[in-house]
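Try this one yourself first.
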């Protein structure tokens, strides 16, 4: 996703059509977005500051596009966190932000970020980051245990 032509195209699509509909790469926004299953509906960045729990599409200084949730708003910028992560990313400013998630399309059904279903998800999953850390850590145990076992088998 760091190809300059692709970077330019995201901004061009938003400027030309007012909406960008695309899939995601990776698992950082699970369980909200699953690669290969869901589509993101991104609209241009609104005027003014974004709010806590908004999900902007932003471009890091290295050119990589990222879609993560705002977990803290400060005078200097935003603190971001993927729904399937627990490491905070600081230093994201309004200049980095390209657009904002407005809906998720799953199995042909559009779920806007203003829906009751989405707001409930945000309150439960994102409002209790300590609980999310425990759940994500517990879900990773089988994978980590499997890797540990396979690395220590002598062949």
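Now uncover the answer:
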């Amino acid at each position: 996703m760091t190809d300059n032509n692709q970077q330019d195209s995201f901004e061009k699509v938003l400027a030309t059509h007012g909406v960008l509909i695309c899939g995601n790469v990776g698992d950082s926004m699970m369980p909200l977005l699953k690669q290969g299953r869901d589509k993101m509906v991104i609209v241009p960045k609104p005027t003014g500051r974004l709010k806590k729990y908004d999900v902007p599409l932003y471009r890091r200084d290295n050119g990589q596009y990222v879609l993560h949730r705002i977990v803290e708003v400060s005078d200097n910028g935003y603190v971001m966190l993927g729904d399937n992560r627990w490491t905070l990313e600081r230093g994201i400013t309004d200049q980095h932000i390209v657009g904002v998630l407005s809906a998720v399309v799953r199995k042909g059904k559009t779920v806007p970020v203003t829906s009751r279903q989405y707001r409930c998800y945000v309150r439960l999953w994102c409002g209790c980051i300590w609980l999310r850390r425990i759940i994500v850590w517990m879900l990773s145990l089988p994978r980590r245990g499997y890797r540990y076992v396979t690395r220590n088998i002598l062949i």
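Discussion: The chain has three helices and nine strands. Residues 29 and 83 are 5 Å apart (CA to CA).
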